[in-house]
Amino acid sequence: MNAVFYLLAVLTLAGGLAAILFKHLIHSALAVTVAFGGLALLFLQLDAQFAGFAQILIYIGAVAILIVFAILLTHGSELPKEGVFSRSWILGLVIAAGVFAVLAWAVLQSVHAAPQQSAVPVVSVRDIGNALVGRYVLPLEIVGLLLTAATVGAVIVAKHETGRSR
Amino acid sequence: MTSAGPQLTGYLLVAAMLFAIGLAGALVRRNAIMVLIGIELMLNAANLNLIAFWRFGAHPETLTGMMFAVFSIAVAAAEAAVGLGLVISIYRHTYTTDLDRMNRMKG
Amino acid sequence: MMQGAAPFVPAATLPAIAHILWLVPAAPIVASGTIALLKQSRRKASASLAIGSLSFSLVLSIVAFAVTVREWAHGAIVRESFNFIWLQFGDRTVDLGWVLDPLAAVMVVMVSFVGLLIFIYSVGYMAHDENFTRFYCFMSLFAGAMLGVVIANSMLLLFMCWEIVGLTSYLLIGFWYRRPAAAAAAKKAFITTRVGDIFFLLGVVWLFSQTGTLLLYNHGAGSLEGLALGGLLRQHAALGLSAASAIALLIFAGAAGKSGQLPLHVWLPDAMEGPTPVSALIHAATMVAAGVFLVARVYPLMQIGAPEHGTTAALTVVTWVGAATAVFGATIAVAQNDIKRILAYSTVSQLGYMMAGLSLGGIAVGMFHLITHAFFKALLFLGAGSVIYGSHEEQDIRRMGGLKVDMPLTFITYAIGMLALCGFPLFFSGFWSKDAILEAAHHSAAIEGPFYFLLLGVLLTAFYMTRQVCYVFFGYWRGHELAHESPKVMTLPLVILALFSMALGFIGTPAWPWFHAFLEGGPPAFVIHAFADSRLLALMAVSSLVVFLGLGLGWRLYGDRSPEPEEPDVLETSVPWLWAGLCDRLYVDELYGATAIAFYAWWARVADWFDRRVWGGAVAGVAWAFGLWARLNCLLDVYWVDGGFDKACDELSNGGGLLARVESGRVQSYLRILAVAVVALAAILFWSDRR
Predict the structure, then answer these.
(1) Residues C523-569: pLDDT tens digits?
(2) Which residue of A has its CA nearest to B96?
(3) What distance in Å separates residue B29's CA from the closest CA in chain C?
């Protein structure tokens, strides 16, 4: 068990790290796709099959493609002259390190108190369906609304303005 | 002390690390799209946290963690769409995606 | 009582009249106040008010005089006073009051009558002057104040009215104030009389402190009555004088200032800068007579303690001062060329006569000459005014001449006045009054010298008056335009005064000494045998001779000749050094200038230096200190307060600038801040949780 976990963890983290370190944006997009994949596998390992497949479908299938399209449309292949990292990148790094430190410390300090459960939960799609339209019907509807609004909004924001610009 | 303990801690740590990496990416890189990528990574780290707690927490049969994560994925997708659309739109006006140069909100 | 004799005195008794006597001075003063409120253009109204009020005073004075005569005829000692308390502090009181006795009755009639005639004269004389109303305002005030002096029974009231008289004299001498000579003369008059008044005030204060009362007559308790006088006599002052004599001398000093006696005479000739009616009323008839009147009033004080056939120290001083003044004034008058100046020095001389008469012969002798002099001197001044008016404001006698033809009425009246002044025998009042003085001087066993002085004065008086009349009325006209007679409103008072100048003599002849008896309270007897006294006849002959001598000398030297104005005078060619000295008024003014005035100027310089350097320096020092303090404050303000404040504001805006840098507009920096905030929050939460 643990070995698989470590492998998957390394894969995911490497992918994430690569994503932020590559100069070319396309490479970063591909690396982040790998990270998404790694996470999906982690979900599968955690017996959250639905979440894992949803992750693959949506993240890898839609978000990553979207990112690639965006890179394409913004001419992301051209490298900027000043370099890819911001002027004060050390500060950002430090902050991120600080955040990690706090989180890690919190995690390490508090897990002792959490009750441990190792029984594998059996989750069927039927249960998920029932939960969606039963207990979580409101969030479902709202998410639907949100998605509609997002779609419409994205289209409006990104479309060519007639007659203006250029 | 069962064998599930280290597993939870491990997952949480991985999530934390991923979150930190995502944050670093958002804070360090110049490109706007990179920032969005970083945000996606952070969201994913949060999802991992949720699933991990669902798996190793009390009452997994209520599916709370999983549902939360699923909704989070959906919302993240919507947000990515809108965000990238914005970046494209800004690119059309300013011909750059360099965040250091976008300081019209200065002051 | 005597209904038929005096139809306007229905049932008047002495106390009743004395009670309302205050109306006599009050009427002109009220008129003066009213005129002061009138506009300049209301000339008729102001003249009418003045003349009307003084007529009222005259009528009341005549009533009072008649009543007094009636009471005296009954053989009573006539003196009625009306006193009241004015101020009270502790158990001391300051009283005011007025008295009606023969002296007051005579004076009050004379002042209001002569004053009324002069008021009427002024209607014509001042007709062309634009300050007509102001003139009558001041003249009325003067008349009221003079009448107040005359009836005053309290030394305080007398002094107050005395000062008002001095004030109005100043105002009237400087009437044409735009002329520097007039303004200077007014100042000189005021200051010189002030010197006398200081001594007067000292005397009054001393009297008050010794006797405890300021009232002169108070039914036995007054300061001039037996009890008080006795006390004053016993009190010893310095230099062997009794308190009575010392106080009397101090009061005489005040009288000497007002009446132009020898050291303090310098203001009188300069006072001729005022209009002629002013000279006539104030400096001939009334104000200058106030000094003589004052000596007469306090005569008991001067006389007390005199041994049999002797005299007191005070009276001796008065006699010699009077005699010296008489000669002094007469000698200077010989060399003057201004028609009014001659008359002014003549007045100085005659005042000396009056003072000598008072001290040598008693109240009646001096007062008689005062009354006659008032009439003929006023006549002479008004006549001179008529001459000036007729010869178009010419005042130098060397530019006149031959006016007996052009101004006949003026000439006749002036001649009458001149003869009265000289003392021409028998028909002129001046002869009788001057003779009374000469007789008293001759009879005086104690003091011998003054008689010869006075006789010399008679000679000089006749001489200079002849000179003046010859220059003005005889010979031929040497002026610029032709002269003309004055209007009736001016000549009528002249005629009235001339008549009185002649007639008044008859109430004071030795054969019928009515005036003397009236004033001194004896029976009026018509004693023709008095003329049989050989000594008296001899004296009359001697004085007449001297008068003729003077007249003849004057006529011989000046006669009908009219020398050109530029030619030197006859006497000038013969005794030039004497003439020059007399012309320059015997250098008395120069003496004052070199001593008192020079000292005063030096003192003023010292005071000025002190004021500028010491006090001015102190003030400047304080100002400098304040300036320093202000500058210090300014520096503090600018550098510390302002600087601090400005700096704080700069820091604030810098800080704002610094803080604004957070708003970089860059999304990533916002993100960073968010992250830091979350970390911090998390840390706090965990930390607090752990505890």
Answers:
(1) 666 666 666 677 778 888 888 888 888 888 888 887 777 676 666 66
(2) A74
(3) 9
> How many other CB atoms are found less than 10 A from the CB of residue A106?
17
User: CB-based contact (8 Å) between C618 and chain A?
Assistant: no
pLDDT band at A114 (very low <50, low <70, confident <90, very high): low
Closest CB from B26, B35, B107 relative to C663: B107
Please name the CATH architecture into which domain A1-80 falls.
Up-down Bundle (1.20)
Neighbours of C495 (CB within 10 A): 15
Q: Tell the residue number behind the tokens 């820091």, with chain if given.
A: C651
Query: Mutate which of C663, C664, C667 to disrupt the B interface (most B C-beta within 10 Å)?
Result: C667
Angle, nearest 10°, between helix axes C102-125 and C488-503? 150
Which residues from B are below 8 Å from A87, CB to CB? 100
Find the CB nearest A91 among C672, C678, C679: C672
Q: Domains of chain B, with CATH numbers?
A: 7-101 (1.10.287.3510)
Nearest chain B CA: its distance from C666 CA (Å): 5
Contacts of C668 in chain B (CB under 8 A): 26-27, 35, 99-100
Domain residue limits, chain A? 1-80, 122-166
Q: Enumerate the β-bridge partners of residue A59.
A: none
Q: Do A98 and C690 touch (CB under 8 A)?
A: no
Is 70 exceeded by the pLDDT of residue A95? yes
C-alpha–C-alpha distance, residues C333 and C356, integer Å = 19
Indicate yes or no: CB of A74 within 8 angstroms of CB of B10.
Answer: no
Long-range contacts of B75-78 (CB under 8 A, 24+ apart): B75/A143, B75/A146, B76/A58, B76/A59, B76/A63, B76/B40, B76/B43, B76/B44, B77/A58, B77/A59, B77/A62, B77/A63, B77/A147, B78/A146, B78/A147, B78/A149, B78/A150, B78/A151
Specify the length of chain A in residues: 166
Number of CB atoms found within 10 A of residue A86's CB = 23
Instruction: Find chain A residues with C-beta within 8 A of C672's C-beta.
Output: 91-92, 95
Chain A residues close to C675, C-beta within 8 Å: 95-96, 99
pTM of the predicted protein model: 0.64
Lowest model confidence (mean pLDDT) among C81-85, C139-143, C562-566 = C562-566
Question: Which chains have at least 3 CB atom pairs separated by less than 8 Å from chain A?
Answer: B, C
Non-local (6+) Cβ contacts of C458 within 8 A are: C422, C423, C434, C438, C543, C546, C547, C550
State how far the Cα of C632 lies from the Cα of C634, in Å rounded to an integer.
5
Q: Are the CB atoms for C250 and C197 separated by under 8 Å?
A: no
User: For residue C311, what is the DSSP state?
Assistant: -
The single-letter code of the amino acid at C290 is: A
Contact partners, residue C591, CB within 8 Å, separation at least 6: none
CA distances from C580 to C342, C459, C468, C500 (A): 16, 21, 18, 38
Q: Which chain A residues touch C if contact means CB-CB below 8 Å?
A: 86, 91-92, 95-96, 98-99, 102-103, 105-106, 109
Count of H-run helices and E-run strands, chain B? 3, 0
Give pLDDT tens digits for C354-378. Answer: 999 988 888 888 889 998 898 889 8
For residue range B48-68, what is the model confidence (pLDDT) as tens digits? Answer: 999 998 988 777 778 888 999
Instruction: Please give the residue of chain A at the shortest CA–CA distance from B82.
Output: A154
Q: d(Cα C18, Cα C37) in Å, to the nearest integer?
A: 31
Which secondary-structure segment (H or E) carries A104?
helix A89-110
C346, two tokens = 């003549």
> What is the DSSP pairing of strand C80-89 with strand C92-100?
antiparallel
Amino acid at C562: S
Question: Hey, are the CB atoms on A99 and C678 less than 8 Å from each other?
Answer: yes
Count of other CB atoms within 10 angstroms of residue C490: 25
